[in-house]
Amino acid sequence: MSWALPLPVAIPLLAAALMVSTDHLTPRLVHDAVAILASGAALAFSLVILLASQSHDVLHWFGGWHPDGGVAIGIVFAADPFGAAMASLATALVFLALIYSLTYMREESRSFDVLMLGFGGAMAGFSLTGDIFNMFVWFELMGVCAYALAGFKIEELGPVQGAFNFAVTNTLAAYMILTGIALLYARTGILNLAQIGHELAGDKADRLVVVSLTLIFIGLMVKAAIVPFHFWLADAHAAAPAPVCVLFSGAMVELGIFFIARVYWTVFDAPFHAHPGPIKVLLVVIGMLTMLVGALMCFLQRHLKRLLAYSTISHAGAMLAGIGLLDSKSLAGVANLILAHAFLKGGLFLVCGLVLMQLKNIDEIRLRGAGRDMPITGVLWFLGSLGLVGIPYVGIFLGHGLLDDGAIEHGYGWIPALTMVAAGTCAGAMFRAGARVFLGWGADEDELLSPEPDENPQERDAKVPLMWAVTAVMIGLGLVASIVPGLEPRSERASERFVDRTAYASRVLHGIAVHGGPHLPFDLPSATGSSLAYGSGALLVALAVAAIGLWHGRVPRLVQAPLDAIRDAHSGIVGDYLLWIVGGTAVIGAVWAFTLP
Amino acid sequence: MNYLAFGVAAWIFCVGVYGAIVSRNLIHLALCLTVTQSSTYVLLLAIGYKHHAGAPIFKGVKLGTPAVDPVVQSLTLTDIVVSVTVVALVLALAVVAHEHSGTVDPDELASMEG
Q1: What is the DSSP letter of A48?
Q2: What does the alpha-carbon distance between residue A429 and residue A421 come to, in Å, rounded to a whole number?
Q3: d(Cα A514, Cα A140) in Å, to the nearest integer?
């Protein structure tokens, strides 16, 4: 299988190069076909690798530079089930988004397809790499494509400004990561993840390693839109075309989260294994903070894409907290949450694309009742929102259930209650928006919500049935993610493999196979009583929040003032965003400098 | 062990970030990013530097001759290539923002955008 491992990256990148070079020669049909075929092939190979990775880690040493006696010289792609699953998810979203944009992005579609393929290839590389500098290169490539896609509708000011803020904040993040990598290299003289962990294992952690940990984690948290590094995300999402938002919310943000886990369990677990307390507490606390801030901001939006963007921030916070618990059960929960969230949130963004195209607006208040004669689009919106509540056996339920169980085992019994409230609030805001747009419920003005400028619509006649079909497929996949037979035990075993640092090192550096455990059954996922209760509770919260949003009375000054303060912090000025990054880094770095051994 | 180069790298990083935070001009802001980035060059090269060692070219050299670390040099080159792309894109966005609004001040841009 080793030969296939670079293909999910190589095929899209080569296709993108081919499309750019033959742009003036080929007719549109050929161009589209190449893009769809390339992303489909990348998806197929990712899935094949995912299957193969169940029994052993798939390795590819570039240029044949195999490790010699356990010393890695070359660059490796190392696919374990989670890495391969992230690559599959990212390429699947690219594939679906390209089909959706076949007609949606008609005029610009040539350079659009090229950027989408580049973005997809970079995300796959980021998921599969086992080398820390290689990770930085994919981070930057992913970034460049993403900035260009965010500012794609360059004829308007909003996208340009959103892309600019996105580019500047994420570039600073990249330099922080690079500085952290350089410090790790200074300490160990190696760039392979497994071997850095091996080198750091015997020593006591010193300040250099703590600084490196801080810089790498914060760089990844900027990508993952964790409070207070999250400001770029809403600007970029509000401005980007809907199919691009699918990739931003569904895969790119989650890749930041994924690599925090990857780099912790391959590298930083070694020096901090005995005293992970401060890392754990801090990641859980900022994860929960992110979750609550994201949910609150989500409730305050009337721009549908911004509303979804803040809900992504909220879910990213839950994912970070799950990773921060540093155990395999919560990690399995995060993996399932990423899977279900990606398809549901992606589907909801595609609904936004449909709304924007059919109603020429994206503002909840102005669209009040405008969607009454769009039953299919409306039903899709409500189904997607319903999946994000976490009600038993639907959508994100499995992810939340495992995460909650892990948290309770670790004595963090308050986490499930908070995730319930946050997920309920986000879904409630979506219900409210859906009820107002598609049913015409509620008041036709709301002083609680942020004032928002318009987004000029895509003025094209797209093939709406095709767009419906892609959206329905995505939302359907997201809704059934919790009842896939056999997914739960497989994700738990995969995460046990993920968190075993020494086994990872021996698999990558010495090519030792995984000891196959007992054969896993294809059962329906089981659920504990508490997760059923929290799931049902989230639905009640969502309905209550939606009702409050639709029919609340005058807002007292005491409530309005703090909300305005939080809103004002999201100023749209890039210098402010950078200051938040620096301040957050200083605080987190100081906490770790004084508490880590 | 010479700490000067590491101090210089940290200083350049901080200067660049400070400049980007207080910047009132998008072009200036992009240049501040490149300043921040150049701190990574200094850091990487300082990590690989050895006193009294030659360039890492091993053709016709006796085995065991000290040389500076070639890995960090290739990392620096990669870093330059990758980041030039980003800065080019940021500058292009700044130009387009100016075409749309007639200003390159991020504060004014934000107020126009709302």
Answers
A1: H
A2: 12
A3: 32
User: Which contiguous run of DSSP H or E holds residue A480?
Assistant: helix A464-480
- What does R_g of chain A's alpha carbons equal in angstroms? 23
In chain A, the residue whose alpha carbon lies closest to the alpha carbon of B46 is A186
Chain A, residues 367-426, CB within 8 A of chain B, namely none
Do A350 and A418 touch, CB atoms closer than 8 A? no
Nearest CB to A140: which of B22, B29, B86? B86
Which residues on chain A are in Cβ contact (under 8 Å) with B70? none
Residues within 8 A of B (CB atoms), A 517-576 only: 571-575
Confidence check: pLDDT of A428 > 90: yes
- For A508-565, write each residue's pLDDT tens digit: 898 887 766 677 778 777 778 888 999 999 999 999 999 998 888 788 888 888 888 8
Instruction: Locate A429 and state its tokens.
Output: 């805001």
pTM of the model: 0.94
Among candidates A435, A346, A419, which has minimal Cα distance to A382? A435
Give residue limits of the domains in chain A: 2-507+551-595
Omega before residue A562 within 30° of 0, cis: no
Tokens at A284, concatenated: 């859980």
Please give the full DSSP string across A96-164, using - where no structure is assigned: HHHHHHHHHTTTTHHHHHHHHHHHHHHHHHHHHB-BHHHHHHHHHHHHHHHHHHHT--TTSHHHHHHHH
Q: Rounded distance, CA A143 to CA A247, Å?
A: 12
Decide if A248 contacts A146 (C-beta within 8 A): yes
- Residue where the block lists tokens 């949450």: A337
A141 at interface of B, judged by CB pairs closer than 8 A: yes
What three-state secondary structure class fits A447?
coil
Q: Which helix (H) or strand (E) covers residue B68, if one does?
A: none
Question: CA separation (Å) from B24 to A561, A569, B110?
Answer: 29, 19, 12
Q: Residue A79: helix, strand or coil by DSSP? A: strand
The answer to whether the beta carbons of residues A143 and A174 sit under 8 Å apart is yes
A92: DSSP letter: H
Place of tokens 């305050």: A300
Among candidate residues A308, A332, A309, the one with its CA nearest the CA of residue A322: A332
Residue with the two structure tokens 């089930």? A81
Identify the closest residue of chain A to B20 by CA–CA distance: A575
- What per-residue string of b and e applies to A294-331 under the rule 16 or more CB within 10 Å gives b? bbbbbbbbbbbbbbbbbbbbbbbbbbbbbbbbbbbbbb
The reply to whether residue A578 touches residue B93, judged by beta carbons under 8 angstroms, is: no
CA dist., res. A72 & res. A79, Å (int): 16
Which two tokens mark B50? 């050895």
Better-scored residue on pLDDT, A127 or A462: A127
- Chain B environment of A191 (Cβ under 8 Å): 71
Percentage, residues of chain A above pLDDT 70: 96
Q: CB B52: neighbour CB atoms within 10 A? A: 5
Question: Can you list the domains of chain B with their CATH numbers?
Answer: 4-113 (1.10.287.3510)
User: What pLDDT, on the 0 to 100 scale, is given for residue A452?
Assistant: 62
**Beta bridge pairs of residue A506:** none
Tell me which chain A residues have a C-beta less than 8 angstroms from the C-beta of B112: 157
How many residues are given for chain B?
114
Q: Which of the residues B36, B80, B86, B87 would you substitute to probe the A interface, choosing the one with the greatest number of A C-beta atoms within 10 Å? A: B86
3-state secondary structure A289-350: HHHHHHHHHHHCCCEHHHHHHHHHHHHHHHHHHHHHCCCHHHHHHHHHHHHHHHHHHHHHHH
Given pLDDT bands bounded at 50, 70 and 90, which one contains residue B114? very low
